Amino acid sequence: MAVSGISIEEVKGWKEELDEVEQRIGARFSRSEPRRRAMEYITGLLSTAERKNLWQLAEAIGEETPYGMQFFLSRAE
Q: pTM for this one?
């Protein structure tokens, strides 16, 4: 089944590539929370959110506020 010309196989391929990105950058973070937040940030950037500001990115990943994302981008190690 394809939606808008995109097949399930293509989506699975994207997921595999995103998993590869996580493997490549994951070691850069000493804790799991910033690692998870980095992947959520990337997922938000890849989302269909019309604008890519922190409010819309937070909403795209299912959060009510952008505060966790703001902390990650400004202070997380």
A: 0.76
